[in-house]
Automatic annotation (TrEMBL):
Keywords from the named record: Transport
Protein name: ABC transporter family protein
Lineage: Bacteria, Bacillati, Actinomycetota, Actinomycetes, Mycobacteriales
ABC transporter domain segment(s): 7-96
InterPro entries (alphabetical): ABC_transporter-like_ATP-bd, P-loop_NTPase, Type_1_exporter
GO molecular function terms attached to this record: ABC-type oligopeptide transporter activity; ATP binding; ATP hydrolysis activity
Length: 176
């Protein structure tokens, strides 16, 4: 599989969003250039990015380094809208991203991988993987790992920050 084909299938959404120095519409169409205007409007609505309508030229407003500066929250919402327009097969979500929990529901038919440390997010996943020092050490449901894996239980119930382990919560969203 070529790199460009892989990029069309996967969409990462991280807490620190990336927008490019081009118009809002061009940013939204990066994952699917043929998307129509109605699809952009729908994505803006679903992502809660209605601030676009207040920009000087709406969807034609140039943003990014060479254009209008947006807040982190506005950039996050635009990146969420871009993911909705792209409709990827696999969505990789940083749990710290606002509205991360609504994305798998909005992207029906997509699989999602959520990087999380929150029990409430892990509980919603079909499968959970514990990654320690770059290696997946355990896979199961949240309940299974909580009952059987002391390290997982410690991460999910502790009041500490521990960067040596990460939880991947994977949800397979049913197709409509």
């Amino acid at each position: 599989m070529s790199l460009s084909a892989l990029r069309r299938l996967v969409c990462p959404l991280f807490e620190e969003p990336t927008v490019f120095s081009m118009s809002v519409a061009e940013n939204l169409r990066l994952g699917r250039p043929a998307a129509g205007d109605a699809e952009l409007v729908e994505a803006i609505e679903l992502a809660g990015a209605q601030f676009v309508y207040d920009l000087p030229f709406g969807f034609d407003t140039r943003i990014g380094e060479q254009g209008m500066r947006l807040s982190t929250g506005q950039r996050q919402r635009l990146c969420i809208a871009r993911a909705l327009v792209a409709a990827p097969a696999l969505l990789i979500i940083d749990d710290a991203l606002p509205a991360a929990d609504m994305l798998p529901r909005a992207l029906r038919g997509a699989s999602s991988v959520v990087v999380t440390r929150r029990p409430s997010t892990a509980q919603q996943a079909d499968r959970v993987a514990l990654l320690e020092h770059g290696t997946i050490t355990h896979i199961g449901t949240h309940a299974e790992l909580l009952a059987q894996v002391p390290r997982y239980r410690h991460l999910m119930t502790g009041d500490h920050i521990d960067c040596s382990a990460t939880i991947f919560a994977s949800s397979l969203v049913e197709k409509p």
